[in-house]
Amino acid sequence: MTVTQRAGGGTTTPAGPAFTPVTGRLRATPIDPVDEVAVVSETEVVVRKTVREDDPYLEGHYPEFTVYPGAFIIESVFDAVLRLVRAHRGERTFVEPAEISSVRFTTALRPGDTLQVRCVCQASDDETSGNGADLLRVVAHCTNGEAKAALVKMAFRVLPTEEPTGSGAA
Amino acid sequence: MIDYAELRELIPHAHPILLVDKVLDISPPDRITTAKTVTGSEPCYAGIAPGAPTRAFAYPPALLMESWGQGGALLWMRHVRSQARERNGGLILAAARDMEFRRPVYPGDTLRHEVRIDQFVGDNVIMSGESYVDDELVSKVDYAIPVMRPSDELTWAS
Q1: CATH classification of B4-43+52-149 is 3.30.43.10, yes or no?
Q2: What is the pLDDT of residues A52-90, one digit of tens each?
Q3: Where do the structural domains in chain B lie, given as residue ranges?
């Protein structure tokens, strides 16, 4: 993982984050929302996903022409944040969406397009979601090449660790 | 009431992303209640690693939003048809604000979506509403704006 240091106000020109390919699904999701991930720091993660004609659900959206449902971008944000949190808090940590304060879609994605999502996260120390879970606020800048695809502002609850199923735990 | 064959004709969404099972109530032009039962056989549950915890099986937020929004799309497209017009192209979500997720939804849960169209603005509408499982609030949306666009003009610019 590449950690970009920005110390003392000076900026280096990073070569770009180092991406790691992703396989397997961490949770229920309509498409594989992340092809590759780069955890940049404790608060920043970047993921990429290329839209494929044969992504599940796309054949019905729509039969005459394929357009990637904007809401599916939320799944890439979700997975990006889940992978960031797991990188720092352990593989058994889970997050769940708490709110979308705003989302605005600006460019339609079609098969062959590569969505890049850069999430900047901020833990809300003085905020909990009511059940004691920490709240993580996220601003996600979503691009398709040079074009803006969406801007998502949302929050996730960071849940207490669950025992894996089949572990024999009560 | 709108039966399944009719709802399938009204909105452009097709299998497997047609996420409304039934219209429970409709008060044209601006209120509708729909139902959608989540099942573990849906494609979103494929390929999850063995040993995944309970939370891994929560219904994805994108499909929850999509399922809720399709209720509004049904109401809207019925309104369009009542004006002797036809749907022109696809429906896409342009923006949403102030959406809350209160509890996860799992296979076996039946969602009841309440959708209100607060404003009709040309080929756009502004909608709000809630989703429930039994009487428990699952999610709410204060503002969502889907737009109708011809397939060769897929842009959100109004």
Answers
A1: no
A2: 999 999 999 998 889 999 999 999 999 999 999 999 999
A3: 4-43+52-149
